[in-house]
Amino acid sequence: MERPTVTKESQSLQKLTEALGTKKGRIQDGVLSWAGGSIARYPWRRAGSTPYEVLIGEILIGKTTYAVASRVYRLFLRRFPSLNALAEANEDELAKALDFSYMKRYGAFIKAVIQDLLNKGIAKVPSDSYALRALGLQPYNVNAIMCFGYGFHLAVIDSNVSRMLSRLFCNSLPAQPPRGLIQAIGEALLPDRNAAQYNANLLDLADQICNFGRPLCAQCLMLDVCDHASVCVDISSIQNKG
User: Fold this and answer.
1) In whole angstroms, what is the distance from residue 183 CA to residue 158 CA?
2) Domain total in the chain
3) Are residues 123 and 87 in the same domain?
4) More confident site: 31 or 102
5) Whole-angstrom Cα distance, residue 77 to residue 87?
């Protein structure tokens, strides 16, 4: 009987599976321990936020900084607290609510999403991923709405989290891991409970600490299990300082 062929792909998958098993608990603890003020910075991610509030907030944060997004978000929700209120807005009202000149071009997209819902006779933001994608929303927006707005147990992966996960597991991943693989890693790391809090913390941690240009590895709570840091950072010197 011939022995089964062990391919490079199967070896890589086994290596990643082993790394996930080794690091999962440590990553979960580090993320849930993060106290970077993620809920205060992003009010639409706090418990009790409506799907409409999450929709507006996550579209805004995808286009600008958290400081601008938070300011615009509060003004926007005061002017347009509901789907119907936003659907009735004209271009001038949208421009005023978006506040910053470079944000104004996104008003048409936000209103188009809401108008599409109402045209279909849907009086609230859908809780179905297919219906949300049909509105032109990106996978990140869809999962954010379903997690923060409806409480679904889903990983919310934006570009910052994707970069952080790629760094944490870079020894077990191809140079440019496909989005589906990163999403699968994110799902595998989700704790059984507190998924919304975990996602909110991870989004903030990835943005603030594991940033693109100069990651603040010394402040990272997962430094000891990060493949990228093991190569690029003198971990022993950081630990000795601590």
Assistant:
1) 10
2) 2
3) yes
4) 31
5) 13
